[in-house]
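Input sequence (1067 aa), recorded before submission:
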Amino acid sequence: MDEGGSRIRRRVSLPKRKRPSLGCIFVVPTAAELERGDEKKEEEMVAENRRRKTAGVIPVEVQPYLLSDSPDCLFLGGGDTNPDLLRRMPTDRGMGYQHNDSEEDMFGDYDSFTENSFIAAAEDLEQKYMQLPELRKHATDFATENVCSESIKNKLSVTPIGNFTELQTDKHTENQSGYEDVTVEPGADLLYDVPSSQAMYFENLQNSSNDLGDQFMKERAWKSSSHNTVNEELPHNYIEQPQQNDESSSKVRTSSDMNRRTSIKDHLKSAMTGNAKAQTPVFSRSKQLKETLLSEEINVAKKTIESSSNDLGPFYSLPSKVRDLYVQLKGIEKLYEWQHTCLTLKSVQERKNLIYSLPTSGGKTLVAEILMLQELLCSRKDVLMILPYVAIVQEKISGLSSFGIELGFFVEEYAGSKGRFPPTKRREKKSLYIATIEKGHSLVNSLIETGRIDSLGLVVVDELHMIGEGSRGAILEMTLAKILYTSKTTQIIGMSATLNNVEDLQKFLQAEYYTSQFRPYSDTLKKMDPDHLVALVTEVIPNYSCLVFCPSKKNCENVAEMICKFLSKEYLKHKEKEKCEVINNLKNIGNGNLCPVLKRTIPFGVAYHHSGLTSDERKLLEEAYSTGVLCLFTCTSTLAAGVNLPARRVILRAPYVAMEFLKRNQYKQMIGRAGRAGIDTIGESILILQEKDKQQVLELITRPLENCYSRLVQEFTKGIQTLFLSLIGLKIATNLDDIYCFMNGTFFGVQQKILLKEKSLWEITVESLRYLTEKGLLQKDTICKSEEEVQHNFHITQLGRASFKGTIDLAYCDILYRDLKKGLEGLVLESLLHLTYLTTPYDLVSQCNPDWMIYFRQFSQLSPAEQNVAAILGVSESFIGKKASGQAIRKKVDKDVVNRLYLSFVLYSLLKETNIWTVSEKFNMPRGYVQNLLTGAASFSSCVLHFCEELEEFWVYRALLVELTKKLTYCVKAELIPLMEVTGVLEGRAKQLYSAGYKSLMHLANANPEVLIRTIDHLSRRQAKQIVSSAKMLLHEKAEALQEEVEELLRLPSDFPGVVASSTDKA
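Predicted structure, token format:
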């Protein structure tokens, strides 16, 4: 075994002689034949000239054989040659080849093909030899023979990539053709390249040879060293030409069908032309073997699951590559015992629905990921993962994109304005949809409508306890109820750290339940005096991390500053350079702006974290905290339910969230951040309280978790009415009895005895359907089945369909329709203000309290066209002026319209300036609020677009809203939008990448993470790898969609007249 690669041995067989020996090395035609015509003499003198320059060469026609599955492993057989006669062939790679579309131009005046060449000599001797009478009778064999003397040695080197295999000719072929084995020993002489794209030529030639009835060589095992074999050495990128030996003697016979034969010159010219034109594919034998192994393991695992056998695959029915990826990407080498138990539960093996509950940091997500991978790779079904927040969706997208690239599935984001409805239908690769609660509901609706719900094999719900929280809980319940009702093959997995009345959820989801109190460390609760906060913090930082939860956003900032005042100057020296980089990066993403509080606290390794920060700022601070540059966060309770930011010590500054006393599940989530699994080995939680709160705190830490109750009826327009509208729109249930039956199967139906006191479920169902009918969203048809029996059927109206397709809150659907209708009468398109107003979210209007002086100042700066928009909406400058000066107003103006226009001014300024800092200062709003407004507007704009697509009268809005939605989603200059499509790339990072030359998705997908780290400031290795993986995933997704579109266009339509006729005839 050489260092450069393995040796392989090949047997090259040449046909045995079936004619008398020619007796000499050269095949010399007779004098009579040479003098057949005077017109040929000049040509033959040139040929003689060539022969003198090719002394010692036996030219033969070459029949190439493909000896390996790898197109690079090729054998080109031929006679002994003088190495000086062969020129080095130009290749696609490394030879400076320039593409030329003309074959004639490529070989035009290049004399090596006509003079002083082995090929020319071969052709001349070949022509003369074929004219010998004694040979014409053998012209039926297409073969080459070379009988070597004892000292002839040929050396062949081939360029494989990856693993090598031992290959031989088939005995059957050997016997039939009368082939004789010839041993070719290694020598050392001239080296020349053969490009891997040569494979195209040999494949074509092989097909041609098959037509002639040739027997081709096949792979077989090496059996005996006593046989004479071809011993081939395989150094990288070389083929060594056969070596000349003066003492050798050879006998040559060339025979073929003259009508079908092609000369060696034509073959090689054609091959080189093809090589020059073709792109050089990169063939990797090792990659092929790995893919084959992965495919075999997936098939084995698939059979295992189908047979419900306990004999699992290498890694819980998954390929061993999955285990390697977890070690490589996440550092997980071994599962906890409870995780192993959960994954091997009988209910999981039988694909039953499952709810499992563990404390925060117990490792729930890993179990869900393994189950999702089983579904994607083994069962070959799509998977939906529902997460509570956009930030968590993006974090999970980044984390799983690498798995998708390596294992061959797509990871698609459904959050904010992102997501396609219905999703792209894929025939080969499967998709993992990662969605927020709202987008998950829309996705399920679209799958039901298109009859594809059965393609969804698994639905995973994180934070299942949110089913009892407000309108989002109602939407989550509707989603799960529809899946249960419409698909019997879709498995549902629910997980949460905080569940109490799990029996109700079990009954609703028809699920098994698994729980464990496992934590990788123990919790501690200490009651300390508030004055010792600094002392508690300094026991941990800067070597370990600490989280201090505060009741309000303002309190977060105050506590951060207070702690820094008492910290020693020594803390300034800890990772000083890295902290300076964080400050500079914050300035860059804020276009030179930096929060004064952060400017004072970051040098100490301290920062605040709440919704007042922009997405860019939050992401940068979280990364700095994760890498240990920042060691202390003062934060609000939202961090506990958000991204994974663990700590050695968690301190609760007070048992309050804003003005409300802490709930049990909130408390458990906060202290669950202490000592997260795989990151820290110890976790401590400390609650600071006052005497007056002592009794409530004792109850808080000892009482059981809060119960979880359905919100389907309490959230009237977003709950039960929306559910009924979609049931009828999707034709899941269209009459009163079917709808009532469906309701009994919901979580609300399970809890109806507890939740319903005054009215029955039947009465609530009838009232809700009557309300939808009166609102013009449904129409009722009465069918008399008999004199006594009457059935009420419902069908959805156009407005109703538009509302449920656009997922518009039914409280606003008629207002939206009226605003859009009014907009058609005088839509102002000189600026984006009018369209922006129409896409400003209604639910944010009630929270808006305009600063009237700012409002008046902005109003007075409007152009005439923009003032015309305000006039159309009924808002005058005099009204705003009077409000700003505090004067009484007699004329009645719609307050909601005024407030909505103010918010649209904020959004309009953002679209023009694309700088959140500037806009937040201009309108005196927290920059976090401005960004939330922008995110909400982008999402609502997407909803309005889907609403308009269902109503023909609003056709004019469709193209306009597509562009506006894109502008609101990214709110950056147009050149940065392709980069921001990649998960994890926000505006600040997109500017850095663009400046460094990465200007498109293709650039990022082909980037080297190590080069990115050196090129882009403040980019960690983990971030660089995630960006590249996400870009590759997005690029593959787009390429696959285009490829499937092409195949769909080229496929014969199923309703093609001839096809229909033929199928009818067969029937």
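Checked by second reader. DSSP finds 45 helices and 27 strands in the chain.
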